[in-house]
Amino acid sequence: IALLEVNGTGPFYAGEIVKYRKKLGGYVNINQLTEIYKIDTPKLNKLKKQLYLDTIEVRKISINTVGFKNLLSHPYSDFETTKYILNKRNKLGKYAALYQIRDNEHITDSLFFKILPYLSLDE
After folding, report:
1. Do residues 96 and 77 lie in contact, with contact meaning Cβ atoms separated by under 8 Å?
2. How many other CB atoms are found less than 10 A from the CB of residue 119?
3. What is the mean pLDDT of the chain?
4. Could you give the CA distance from residue 89 to residue 37 in angstroms, rounded to a whole number?
5. Half-sphere exposure of residue 44, counting CA atoms within 13 Å on the CB side?
6. How many CB atoms lie within 10 A of CB 82?
7. How far is CA 80 from CA 65, 105, 119, in A?
8. pLDDT by residue (tens digit) across 78-120?
9. How far is Cα 66 from Cα 71, in angstroms, rounded to an integer?
10. How far apart are CA 83 and CA 21, in angstroms?
11. What is the pTM of this model?
12. Are 60 and 118 in contact (CB under 8 A)?
């Protein structure tokens, strides 16, 4: 409801922002809003001045216990990424550190740093 009061959002954008926040598990960077349909850099620059992020409530995914379907549902984990992470977990038994998912062929540095805030080792 508070998003409706932000100049430039309206019901469509407010709904999309909330929907994408739920899919992500929370926003960790204001620039993630450009991943939403029709929010480009000029629109983001307008919104930035009126918004703030609360990163305390970012929902983490335990890579040692997550199932295929749940990991696949995250916007940053496509089918191949999900398959790679879970297959590697099966080989390792479990991940001892998050950096272990990095692999230049399957998980580039760019993807790794994008998805990292959403991952944990907790079970």
Report:
1. no
2. 22
3. 91
4. 33
5. 13
6. 19
7. 18, 11, 17
8. 999 999 999 999 999 999 999 999 988 889 999 999 999 999 9
9. 6
10. 24
11. 0.88
12. yes
Task: Spell 42-72 as b/e; 16+ CB within 10 A means b.
Answer: ebbeebeeebeeeeeeeeebebbebeeeebe
Burial code (b: 16+ CB inside 10 Å, e: under 16) for 16-41 equals: bbeebbeebbbbeeeebbeebeebee
Region 53-77: mean pLDDT is 94
User: What span, in angstroms and rounded, lies between the C-alpha atoms of 97 and 123?
Assistant: 13
Q: What residues have CB less than 8 Å from 110, skipping those under 6 apart?
A: none
Amino acid letter for position 21: R
| Sole residue written with tokens 């991952």 | 119
Query: How big is the chain, counted in residues?
Result: 123
Q: Hey, what are 120's tokens?
A: 């944990």
- CA gap 51, 45 in Å, rounded: 10
Measure the CA–CA gap between 94 and 97, rounded to whole angstroms. 9
Phi, psi of 120 (to 5 degrees): -145, 165
